[in-house]
Specification:
146 residues, Immunoglobulin-like, 2 domains
């Protein structure tokens, strides 16, 4: 179970992820919170064994200052960022994403098949614009801090 808390005292179940049972290899699971809390929140995993024994992972802190959504087509978060920006594309109609700096120079071009998350990292601190080309072009400003 993926659990989320705003205060580390009260935890809410936000996603049940079925395990694979016993395994001789390391298995990896992932889940993207579909409705993250603004500000500071904490996440942890709760594992329940076949015999009913419960254990928790170490809690991880996440800080989301702002999530920008444009026409439901895509989301950019966190904004402002300290290096990595995640873009969630919510529509198969968005094919090409372009990241431009404050003076309009293209610094990244990303291909999207839609309904996915794209990480943009390694950009210098500054103001950037994300432009998506779908049925009509749309643009969104995001900031990377020092």
């Amino acid at each position: 179970m993926v659990e989320r808390s705003s205060d580390m005292s009260h935890w809410d179940d936000i996603r049940k992820v079925a395990g694979a049972g016993n395994s001789a290899i390391t298995l990896y699971y992932e889940y993207l919170d579909q409705a993250p809390l603004m500000g500071r929140s904490f996440y942890r995993l709760r594992q329940v064994d076949y015999n009913g024994t419960t254990s928790h992972s170490e809690a991880r802190e996440v800080l989301i200052n702002d999530v920008r959504v444009i026409d439901g087509l895509f989301e950019v978060y966190p904004n402002p960022s300290f290096g990595s920006v995640f873009i969630r594309v919510n529509s198969a109609g968005v094919q090409m994403l372009k990241v431009r700096n404050a003076i309009g120079q293209e610094v990244r071009s990303l291909q999207s098949s839609g309904n996915e998350i794209v990480e943009v990292s390694g950009l210098a601190p500054g103001v950037y614009f994300l432009t998506a080309r779908g049925s009509e072009p749309i643009s969104l400003k995001f900031v990377i801090l020092d």
